Amino acid sequence: MAYKKWQSTPLPLASLNHISRNCSNVQESMDFYVNVLGFIPVKRPGALNFEGAWLYNYGIGIHLLQREPGITYTTNKSDQINTRADHISFQCEDIDLVEKKLVEAGSAFVRRVVEEAGIEVEQIFFHDPDGFMIEVCTCEKLPLEPLIGGNMTNIRSCLMPYMRTSAITTIEKF
Question: Coiled-coil segments, which residues (predicted)?
Fold first, then answer.
């Protein structure tokens, strides 16, 4: 399908609603997302006729779905952590505490620091029980800077609750 005709007007999206994850064991994955990442289980529509769980926190939902037998899903079940793999990223308030908790849990992870224009962003990458990559970062330190002209009015309403005031001020200058 050609997407060329969409170049002039993007879809009218408001925000990210949820990430859906196929899991080998919904309960194990739910325990991970609740106890490690702090998500809260929420009511799931009864009309869904397959095992799963809905979780919510930080302005995003995660839908955990029980894998169907015999269906192949792509996961990274190796111990190797590739920081460029498909992943979901979360802001954090204390990256050292995140690392401490991962060490205590015996979880493998990679910690990186990315420097941009004198600003250091810290990242920690690790896997959920099915091999899906999770990133926890201090990405809010980087200001949002548009690459092309455009209306930045809607950006402020989409900013995460943890966005620093300095980043918001930087955005309002555009």
Answer: none
Number of domains comprising the chain: 1
In the residue annotation, 135 being an active-site residue is answered as yes
Domain residue limits at 64: 16-71
Tell how far CA 75 is from the center of its chain.
16
From the candidates 28, 99, 120, 135, which is the catalytic residue? 135
Pairing mode, if any, of strands 119-127 and 110-116?
antiparallel
Single pTM value for the model = 0.65
Question: pLDDT tens digits for 108-158?
Answer: 999 999 888 888 989 999 999 888 889 999 888 877 666 666 554 544 444
Residue 39 lies in a domain: yes
How far apart are alpha carbons 127 and 145 in whole angstroms?
Answer: 30
88 within a domain of the structure (yes/no) = no
CB half-sphere exposure, 107, CA atoms < 13 A: 22
